[in-house]
């Protein structure tokens, strides 16, 4: 495994850990400023909308796992295909479980850090 592959795997692990802890600032630091998210049923959105939606979830607890199924380096760009299982549990509410794949494009920025630049999230309700 190359240093870049290890760094990308660490981005995913850091994202998952920060999400479990509710550490939005760490998650935001793993994104480029021009990040674009694509999810079913919504127009593509960026970092500010991601942050607002995350803050709007309040004390919802997030848990989950991510398995990188494919990782390809292309110079200062890379893509990963992940299999994700996640659960969001609002305070006093019922857990919502989702699973599926994401296709994520990462960019190695001027500071040498890999950050998420584009993300197509295809998670669906898990039954």
UniProtKB/TrEMBL annotation:
Lineage summary: Bacteria, Pseudomonadati, Pseudomonadota, Alphaproteobacteria, Hyphomicrobiales
InterPro entries: DUF4440, NTF2-like_dom_sf, Steroid_delta5-4_isomerase
Protein name: Uncharacterized protein (TIGR02246 family)
Annotated organism of origin: Mesorhizobium shonense
Pfam families: DUF4440
Boundaries of every DUF4440 domain copy: 8-116
Domain of life: Bacteria
